[in-house]
Design goal:
Helix content: 25-40%
Shape: globular
Largest sheet: 9 strands, mixed
Number of helices: 11
CATH superfamily of the largest domain: Vaccinia Virus protein VP39
Distance between the termini: 37 Å
Order of helices and strands: HHEEEHEHEHEHEEHHEHEEEEHEHEEE
Number of strands: 17
Structural class: alpha/beta
CATH architecture of the largest domain: 3-Layer(aba) Sandwich
CATH topology of the largest domain: Rossmann fold
Strand content: 15-25%
């Protein structure tokens, strides 16, 4: 059920015929998609999955499995992410050739971590261990989820912080900023009834103004010649193309159109993924290149400068112990294990060769050291 007044606003952005197709699609079931962690898994573990054209590690699934009961999910082998949202990662990949080793990147509005982990994978593929990615989430109630997902993904070149966007505009510290800004959430209507209930034209105007404030606050932190990826999960022109045009004019930038992927809609300044035309809930993305020549010298150590937390630490040198699926689920549930043949002391529990976490084997039982906040809470039988 779409809110009153939404259809005319959508029609102004994409035309009446396309607006009707979107509304019809929103009445259907949402798609299910995952994105592999290339550092851990290169082949999709789900049969009959279909590759997503704009992400080399993204796959559409025919149905939604129980991810909670898949140890590979908890090992960070893949991330469950809307296929449309993966297009932001593609926009990042399109501009990485502009930069070299030592690139500093800010994911400004990062929770729950889908875009962060996508960006991290692309940075590692392009630059090895020579990059820095700062993932920020200003909302304290969402920060813990971001931290947990970064830890599970396992990328040690990612730091997490919780700051207002203005904190990053005090010095030119970043070569690339990804700003998936808070929006009116038209792309959330199918999955979140509250998003539809709270939508109004007044909300659209409020969000558009807030987005401009966020861009203004963070813009000084982008180095000359640097790139800002602007994205929303909404469809109207005020929060999308109009704001991109404003940023280019008022802040000083050139607009670089993202690559085309039919049937993604090319708008005046960016790309718009619409339900019914592509799988997923929808996304908008545009690329802004800041005026000026990009300096060859490296920027500051962003982890130290912004006092970032590093959720991923080097693993302890302790023996790995492979377990079957049911034992893995008991471990993830927080249960004590009995592993009589495992070596005494600290061990790493693995499933299909992928580490799940630590345990301490004391002979008669194995103390479970899996983090309490990450444990499975549903019935695992």
């Amino acid at each position: 059920m779409v809110p009153e007044g939404f259809i005319p606003v959508l029609a102004e952005a994409v035309g009446a015929e396309m607006a009707e197709e979107v509304v019809e699609a929103l009445a259907g079931e949402p798609s299910v998609s995952i994105r592999l962690n290339p550092a851990k898994l290169r082949e999709c573990p789900f049969p009959e999955a279909v590759p997503i054209p704009w992400n080399p590690y993204g796959y559409l699934l025919g149905e939604r499995p129980s991810f909670t009961l898949d140890p590979l999910y908890h090992a960070g082998c893949y991330y469950v992410q809307d296929s449309s949202a993966m297009f932001v990662g593609e926009a990042v990949r399109q501009v990485l050739e502009r930069f070299g080793a030592g690139i500093s990147v800010l994911d400004l509005c990062a929770a729950p971590g889908g875009k962060t982990t996508d960006i991290a994978a692309s940075l590692r593929e392009a630059f090895g261990d020579d990059f820095s990615l700062l993932a920020n989430e200003v909302m304290k109630n969402r920060f813990g989820t971001l931290r947990a997902n970064v830890r599970t993904w396992g990328e040690n070149r990612v730091g997490v912080v919780s700051r207002d966007p203005s904190a990053f505009g005090r010095e030119k510290a970043f070569d690339l900023i990804v700003a998936d800004v808070p929006c009116s959430g038209e792309g959330m209507f199918r999955k979140d009834a509250r998003a539809a209930a709270e939508w109004s034209e007044e909300t659209v105007r409020f969000c558009a103004a807030r987005q401009r404030r966020i861009l203004s606050d963070v813009w000084p932190g982008l180095r000359p010649g640097g790139v800002l990826i602007y994205s929303t999960c909404t469809f109207n022109r005020w929060e999308n193309d109009d704001n991109v045009a404003w940023a280019a004019s008022e802040l000083g930038a050139d607009i670089l159109p993202p690559a085309e992927f039919p049937p993604i809609l090319r708008t005046r300044h960016g790309s718009l993924l619409l339900p019914g035309h592509v799988p997923g809930e929808g996304q908008y993305a545009a690329i802004l290149v800041k005026h000026g020549e990009h300096p060859s010298v490296r920027s500051c150590d962003i982890f130290t400068r912004f006092r970032a937390e590093r959720p991923v630490t080097p693993p302890q040198a302790c023996p790995c112990w492979e377990v079957d699926r049911q034992t893995a689920l008991h471990y993830l549930h927080g249960d004590a294990l009995v592993l009589p043949d495992a070596p005494a002391g600290l061990i790493t529990i693995t499933y299909k060769g992928h580490p799940l976490g630590p345990a301490k084997n004391i002979g008669r039982r194995c103390n479970n050291l899996y983090p309490k906040e990450s444990r499975i809470r549903m019935d695992i039988r």
